[in-house]
Amino acid sequence: MKFKSGFVTLIGRPNVGKSTLMNRLIGQKIAITSSKPQTTRNRIQTVYTDEEKQIIFLDTPGIHKAKNRLGEYMVTTAERTLSEVDVILWLVEPENYIGAGEQHIAEMLKKTKTPVILVINKIDKVKKEDIIQNIGTYSSVMRFAEVVPVSAKTGKNTDTLLKVIGDYLPEGPMYYDEDTITDQPERQICAELVREKALRFLSEEIPHGTAVTVEQMKERPGGRLIDIDASIICERDSHKGIIIGKQGAMLKKIGTAAREEMENLLDCKVNLKLWVKVKKDWRDSDILMKNFGYSDRCDKE
User: Where are the alpha helices (DSSP H) in 58-157?
Assistant: First the structure.
């Protein structure tokens, strides 16, 4: 058999489980996950390789109605990938009602010639007969190359999904060596781990106004300990107080949880120091967005 390789994007509304599925497919946590929508902000590239194929996955921000410059950047990032890949995975939840958000995505997908695989996620939460209904509902909206029901949480049918993706990839080279799992720098992944914990522990509104930057990441002699200095950026002074918490309790909670995952990722001890800084309305500032890692690639290409 000739080797196959290609690029595959995961698209869908916010919070349908795109990052969880991608982490499951590659067998390691790279993209952060949260129950809150709009967790993924950048396009994250990960790599799955076996003896027959190499799949480069692009996990994109959820497609939603943008309310600020950051939102516009996120939606543009997601939509632009449709013309850059070999296969599109449209991830949906097992529902029989197709809302305005899904209709908007369907209209975009109808314009592309790229094979679209409908992936119905979270099947662990519904009955088999409901899944059959879901397939019928979505198949009435547009034609799909394949439909694969999965559970990103339990891993059910994810092996089938990998096989189906392989069927639609062209013959090609191995773009990355077989040990590569992401193009994301460790510095960026560590920053995202801090933001994930902030999303998990803070109240609903505050996390959407936060960003995280890693100012320093330095390995001590011997390679058994890494010092990481990071800042959580927020938009209001009142938010800063909430993030720090009473006597620093919330900041410590975020830092402890993030440090544990960093140690698993880097396979060594981590000394993590966190600060909180206020940058008012940074989500509408092109300069600050770029400083925090959300550069608008549309202007570059």
Answer: 69-80, 100-110, 128-139
Please state the length of the chain: 301
Q: What is the pLDDT of residues 213-252, one digit of tens each?
A: 889 999 988 878 999 999 999 888 888 999 999 999 999 9
Does 24 share its domain with 116? Answer: yes
Is the model's pTM score more than 0.85?
Answer: no
In this structure, the answer to whether residues 190 and 155 fall within a common structural domain is no
Q: What CATH number does residue 294 fall under?
A: 3.30.300.20
For residues 163 and 197, membership in a common domain is answered with no
Q: What is the pLDDT of residues 94-112, one digit of tens each?
A: 988 888 888 888 888 888 8
Which of 35, 48, 37 has the alpha carbon at shortest distance from 7?
A: 48
Sorted by sequence, the CB contacts under 8 Å of residue 216 that are 6+ apart come out as 227, 228, 229
Q: What is the DSSP letter of 169?
A: P
Query: What is the extent of the structural domain holding 49?
Result: 4-167
